[in-house]
Design a protein that fits this description.
The structure holds 2 protein chains of 2 kinds. Chain A is an all-beta fold. Chain A has a single domain, classed as Jelly Rolls (Sandwich). Chain A has no helices and 12 strands. In chain A, the strands form 2 sheets. Chain A has an 8-stranded antiparallel β-sheet, with no helix packed on it. In chain A, a hairpin with a 4-residue loop joins strand 5 and strand 6. Chain B is an all-beta fold. Chain B has one domain. Helix content of chain B is about 0%, strand content about 50%. Chain B is built from no helices and 12 strands. In chain B, the strands form 2 sheets. An 8-stranded antiparallel β-sheet of chain B has the order 1-12-3-8-9-10-5-6, with no helix packed on it. A 4-stranded antiparallel β-sheet of chain B has the order 2-11-4-7, with no helix packed on it. At the A-B interface, strand 5, strand 6, strand 9 and strand 10 of A face strand 1, strand 3, strand 5, strand 8 and strand 9 of B.
């Protein structure tokens, strides 16, 4: 069988920042999607949240997450957003949080189940780790992905995102 | 997860009709690690856990430790000397097409013949009666190379039609 973990597209935020990172015209020829995100947000806080949208829609997204803060583990949920943490502008300089987002069967006709792992380690308080179970309650094939700030801030310069397609044959 | 030329599909299936289990057999030893990607829901019974057995071993040679969050409570638990590896535990396989789950499972250094085998699972059930996001580590106390993996809902459930399972091999070189 062929080797099938392929880069579809990538994005690096330039000077001045960006309000979102967008992947459009995603081909339906893969089985799953994997996104590797390295991000820092402009919000004047230690931590901010990055959320995801599919096909230009912010509707029908939900998640349950497990959050470790360095001193406690808590769990919560959202009936409106699918998100995880990123470092923000008062976090330790030069620190960028990492996320791994996996979307099985993104081109299928069922609802889309999402796995999202995120860390914001900064050698200081305010660092967090997230495990997230997400659901997009929509049967449409995913053709575009938007990553953006939950608090409407910007991704800072040098944030990067890589979108991979995974084929099962 | 490794990128590039070493992420190779070994076998894949989409369940065509309700099935109690699926077995990946004759797994070649030519890779370094294995990754199993599963997604879907159960046929009828709500809340089964998702488990696996390797090389046909049904003995009490498995143990697991989990970290889970159900949207309200964070918890951790452990099972020792059990008869299967737990790919989910606090979360339950939903039984509705509106509650799709997914599982990303890593079998580390699966083909060596000198160490016990570690299996790490990320389980994601965002909605339904038993939702949770989980990280689980399992130990199979056997030094044999893994050449067969049987996955099934536990204690009693079928995969619904459309459930997908794909096994990938990752080669270090």
């Amino acid at each position: 069988m062929a080797n099938t973990f392929e880069l579809i597209a990538s994005s690096t935020v330039g000077s001045g920042g960006a309000s979102s990172i967008d992947f459009t015209s995603i081909p339906s020829t893969y089985t799953d999607l994997a996104i590797y995100l390295s991000a820092r947000q402009s919000r004047s806080e230690l931590v901010s949240n990055t959320r995801i949208e599919f096909n230009g829609s912010s509707a029908n997204l939900s998640c349950r997450y497990l959050q470790g803060t360095g001193s406690a583990a808590v769990s919560s949920s959202s009936a409106s957003y699918l998100f995880a943490a990123s470092p923000a502008n008062t976090a330790t300089a030069n620190t960028f949080g990492n996320s791994f987002i996996y979307i099985p069967n993104y081109a299928g006709s069922t609802y889309k189940s999402v796995s999202w792992d995120a860390v914001t380690e900064t050698n200081a308080t305010g660092a967090e780790a997230y495990l997230v179970a997400g659901l997009w309650s929509n049967t449409a094939a995913i053709t575009s992905v938007k990553l953006l700030s939950l608090s409407s801030d910007n991704f800072m310069q040098y944030s990067t995102a890589y979108l991979y397609g995974v084929k099962n044959a | 997860m490794a990128a590039g030329s070493t992420y190779t599909p070994i076998a894949t299936t989409t369940i065509g009709s309700t099935t109690a289990s699926y077995t990946f057999s004759s797994i070649p030893s030519t890779y370094t690690d294995l990754v199993l990607i599963c997604s879907g829901y159960g046929a009828s019974v709500d809340g089964n856990v998702f488990v696996c057995q390797v090389n046909g071993d049904t003995g009490t040679n498995y143990s697991t430790t989990r970290l889970s969050g159900n949207g309200t409570t964070a918890s951790s638990g452990r099972r020792t000397s059990v008869t299967r590896a737990f790919l989910s535990d606090a979360s339950g396989l939903p039984n509705s097409s509106s509650q799709i789950s997914n599982y990303i499972v890593n079998f580390m250094n699966y083909s060596n013949t000198t160490t016990y085998k570690t299996i790490i699972s990320r389980a994601n059930v965002a909605s339904g009666t038993y939702p949770a996001t989980e990280a689980l580590v399992n130990l199979w106390r056997n030094t044999a190379a893994i050449n067969e993996i049987k996955v099934f809902p536990d204690p009693s459930e079928n995969f619904a039609a459309g459930f997908t399972l794909t096994l990938y091999g990752i080669a270090a070189a």
